[in-house]
Design a protein that fits this description.
single chain, mainly alpha, 87% helix, 149 residues
Length: 149
């Protein structure tokens, strides 16, 4: 058994959990905001305008943070791979035994781990904002509904 298997499985499960939560939160946020836009009509209140402005600013910020986090994680992974291969190539004693150290299984697991890290880092800002918005808008909608009763 490869020593990269368990961390990769854990990372894959964390990524699956984030993706699932996002797949529930995003449609909920869209539905609540579209309903708010529909009820606001042609003349939205100041609170509605703030929410609509926040909606656009949050999307831009989340995707900018996401791309930045993914780029930084990819840079870190590339530096890690480069240093590993450079260390392997700089040591002639390892050339005689290519099956030792940086084997294909280890390299494949490292690539898998690196891509899981890139995806998790990129999904984190979008996930955190969508889940927070679903909670915030859901609480606000529940408060509105109870006030109307």
């Amino acid at each position: 058994m490869n020593h990269y298997t368990i961390p990769n499985t854990r990372k894959a499960l964390q990524l699956a959990k984030q993706t699932t939560e996002l797949s529930f939160a995003a449609p909920q946020v869209v539905a609540l905001r579209v309903a708010r836009m529909a009820t606001a009509g042609a003349d939205p209140s100041e609170e509605d305008r703030r929410e609509f402005t926040l909606m656009g600013a949050e999307k831009l910020a989340a995707f900018t943070e996401s791309w930045h986090a993914m780029g930084m994680q990819m840079l870190q992974a590339q530096q890690h791979f480069w240093s590993g291969w450079w260390g392997y190539c700089a040591n002639p004693l390892k050339w005689a035994q290519p099956w030792e150290g940086m084997g294909l299984t280890a390299v494949g697991s490292q690539y898998q781990q690196a891509w899981l890290d890139v995806m998790r880092k990129g999904l984190k800002p979008v996930h955190s904002r969508a889940v927070a918005n679903a909670r915030r808008l859901g609480h606000r909608e529940a408060a509105r509904a109870s006030a109307l009763r």
